[in-house]
Amino acid sequence: MSKLTETEIEKHLQNLPGWNFKDNAIHTEFEFKDFKDCFSVMSRIAFECEALNHHPDWANVYNTLNISLSTHDENGVTLKDIELAKAIEDIIDEQE
User: Fold this and answer.
1) Burial class of residue 22 in the structure, from the number of CB atoms within 10 Å of its CB (0-12 exposed, 13-18 middle, 19+ buried)
2) What are the DSSP calls for 24-45, one per residue?
3) Torsions phi, psi for 19 (to 5 deg)
4) How far apart are CA 63 and CA 96, in angstroms?
5) Cα-based angle 65, 68, 74 (whole degrees, multiple of 5)
6) Torsion of CA 10, 13, 18, 20, to 10 degrees
7) Per-residue pLDDT tens digits of the chain, which is 96 residues long
8) Which of 2, 60, 67, 72 sits most deeply, having the most CB atoms within 10 A of its CB?
């Protein structure tokens, strides 16, 4: 899978509100009611990551989840990252 151009990435991000592109990755942040809700969503995302065989760089502090996606083999963003971002958004939408 080849690395997307910045123009291609920005076009895809138009359909992913809250995501932005910087430092060769796409990033977002989610805030939840509490740690339990945050961790629950992280667990659901983890199963999707395994299914797609693509894993995020992420960090959790109490009720906040920060996610960065890039394809390390390509040193940048590919369609795998866009696909995972969309799957993450679907999981978040179901949570709300």
Assistant:
1) exposed
2) TEEEEEEE-SSHHHHHHHHHHH
3) -100, 145
4) 14
5) 160
6) -40
7) 799 999 999 999 999 999 999 999 999 999 999 999 999 999 999 999 999 999 999 999 999 999 999 999 999 999 999 999 999 999 998 876
8) 67
